[in-house]
Each structure stands twice: as structure tokens, then as C-alpha cells.
TrEMBL record:
Name under which the protein is recorded: NERD domain-containing protein
Signal peptide: none
A Pfam family it matches: NERD
Domain annotation NERD: ranges: 31-148
Highest taxon, organism lineage: Eukaryota
Length: 323
């Protein structure tokens, strides 16, 4: 019996070591990335639109980039959305900033005015769209802040501005609830001609699909990470085979097949794209296959983290690279 228990424990440790996310597990499990993608998915289903997640829009005022959680394009308008995954009792100060009191730790955390932040992001996006030649109709672009955490408790809900959608409202959102949306995705933007409306949305989709974004790592179990891909680590022949993966040429890498314990090779589908975003039209893309060991590691630095995390290819589903 003791021998069986010992063998079982050893097998458990081996499996755990091969399936864990290496030193990135703590960062990913405690992150808000999955919540962000969950919000984007629900909005797309509710309003039959398209959500662009993890944008990094150049801001001429600060000579840096504005990080935008997501932009939803639906029903002839675009909404810049900031997702605040806060848990606890939240109140609004006179300057619009938030105070969040944790239910269990009884600690207060100060958060800058989220409405002012998302307003600035919308202004940066508008300037970027104009820079890329888009004429923005009046009322086309709006902004919202969503607090989707079930443990979000709004103290004095009447003090929250209409741009805020706390958890209770987020839970009730439906396409027909116009009173809840208050003009958001309900037609605040009106264009007389259908052809003009379609033309504007088509141009917007093209610009947003080619705008700067955070690199995106999708892990098995439908877990996501936004940040910056650094490099691959592994055997010399594997690294040499992966030298073809450069962000200037590659748009996406899909891990097609992996082995359980890294004993068999891993097949990667690499999407090569001619990245010429100066004019609209279809990109010249082709898929190529690269085969490496499953034990090969991918180094990735999550957004808002100073730590570079390691992920075995056996835990990865896909990698999307920004130009």
C-alpha cells in the first residue's frame, strides 16, 4: 500500500510539473485578463458586434500610448470601455476617484477617476482615427466603465455617474433594456443613409484590426495574457527553427499538437502576413508549419508586470503578435 501511495505521489508531482505554467502561474491566476475577455465575449453576443481587446493607441499629448481595455463596435457606433474588476465596497469621492474597501482584509485602496481615464482614452482613440483619415460623425464615439465582479458593492449608487455600469446593472444588460443603456448601443448615433453607415463601420473595423495592440497569449483552459512576447528558450536546434517567428512578419502562432510529457514533438502553425496597413484590402497571408520539442519554453512579460514569465509550449494554445 505504501509503495502504491509513493508511486502515486511521484506520478502526481511529474504531471504537475509538466502542466503548471512555470513561474507565470501566480501572475496569471491573479490577473484580470480573463475577466476582460469574458466581458468582451458577452458584449459581442449581446449586441452582435465586434470587440477589439488590448489596444495601445498612440497619444500625441503625452508622447506615449493609451492602453484601452476594449472597443466595442455595434449598431453603427463605437464604445470605448474600461473594465474595473474590483471586489469590495466602493464609494465615489467628490473628485470622481474611487475608494474600495476589501470585505475580508479591511483595507482601503484608492483608484483614480475611472470616467476621466476612459474619457482620455476615447480622446486618444478619436485623434488616432482622424490621423488615419477617418471622418468621425458626431455622436459616433462614446465611453463606459464596467464593474463586472460579483463582489462589487456600490455604496450610495446614486453618486455613480451614468457612464458607470456596476455589477447589478451589468448582470441585467439585455439588448432591449434601453432604459439601462441610456443611449449606449441604442442609436445615439444616427446616419441618414445606410450606405454611409456601412462605409464608416467598415473603415473603423479596418483601422481597429490594424491598430497597435498588446501581444496576446492564450493558454489551455481558455486563459488569456496580454503583454509582450520576449523570446523562446530551449534546445539550440529548436531555437534555430523558431527564428522565423518575428513580429515584423508573423501575425499569429497556433500550437497545433503537443504531447503529454514533452516526449513527442510539437507542431506549430505560423501565420505569415505582409503587414502593409497603409491601404485597405486583403493581406497576403500564408500558413507554415514548424516542429519543435514540447518542452520548449515561451517567455512573456504580462502587462503591468515587471516579471518575465515562462510557459511551456505544451500549455499554450496560441500567440498573437502586434506589429
Amino acid at each position: 500500500m505504501w509503495i502504491e501511495l509513493l508511486c502515486g505521489f511521484v506520478l502526481y508531482r511529474v504531471i504537475r510539473r509538466h502542466f503548471r505554467h512555470d513561474d507565470g502561474v501566480d501572475v496569471i491566476e491573479s490577473s484580470d485578463f480573463n475577466t476582460l475577455f469574458s466581458v468582451a465575449s458577452r458584449l459581442e453576443k449581446l449586441y452582435r458586434g465586434k470587440a477589439y481587446v488590448g489596444l495601445r493607441i498612440p497619444d500625441p499629448d503625452s508622447a506615449s500610448r493609451q492602453n484601452i481595455d476594449l472597443v466595442l463596435v455595434a449598431n453603427g457606433e463605437a464604445v470605448v470601455i474600461s473594465v474595473k474588476n474590483l471586489a469590495g465596497f466602493v464609494s465615489v469621492n467628490s473628485d470622481g476617484s474611487w475608494v474600495c474597501l476589501s470585505e475580508h482584509q479591511h483595507k482601503e485602496a484608492q483608484h483614480p477617476n475611472p470616467v476621466a481615464e476612459v474619457m482620455k482614452q476615447a480622446a486618444a482613440l478619436e485623434a488616432y482615427l482622424q490621423q488615419r483619415g477617418m471622418v468621425i460623425p458626431e455622436g459616433f464615439l462614446s465611453y463606459k466603465v464596467i464593474a463586472p465582479n460579483p463582489k462589487f458593492r456600490a455604496l450610495n449608487p446614486g453618486s455613480f455617474p451614468p457612464e458607470i455600469i456596476p455589477y447589478d446593472q451589468w448582470l441585467q444588460l439585455k439588448p432591449e433594456l434601453k432604459s439601462v443603456l441610456s443611449g449606449w448601443i441604442t442609436g445615439a448615433f444616427r446616419i441618414a443613409k445606410k450606405e454611409m453607415k456601412e462605409s464608416v463601420c467598415q473603415q473603423l473595423h479596418f483601422i481597429l484590426s490594424t491598430a497597435p495592440i498588446w501581444d496576446r497569449l492564450e493558454l489551455k483552459g481558455s486563459k488569456y495574457v496580454l503583454g509582450e512576447f520576449t523570446e523562446f528558450k530551449g534546445k539550440q536546434d529548436d531555437i534555430q527553427a523558431l527564428q522565423c517567428i518575428r513580429r515584423s512578419k508573423v501575425g499569429r502562432v497556433i500550437v497545433q499538437k503537443t504531447s503529454m510529457f514533452g516526449l513527442a514533438p510539437t507542431k506549430l502553425q505560423v501565420l505569415y502576413c505582409h503587414r502593409d496597413y497603409r491601404s485597405e484590402g486583403a493581406f497576403a497571408c500564408e500558413w507554415k508549419e514548424v516542429t519543435v520539442r514540447s518542452s520548449t519554453e515561451l517567455l512573456f512579460q504580462p502587462q503591468n508586470s515587471k516579471k518575465v514569465c515562462k510557459f511551456k509550449l505544451s500549455t499554450v494554445t496560441s500567440l498573437t503578435l502586434s506589429a
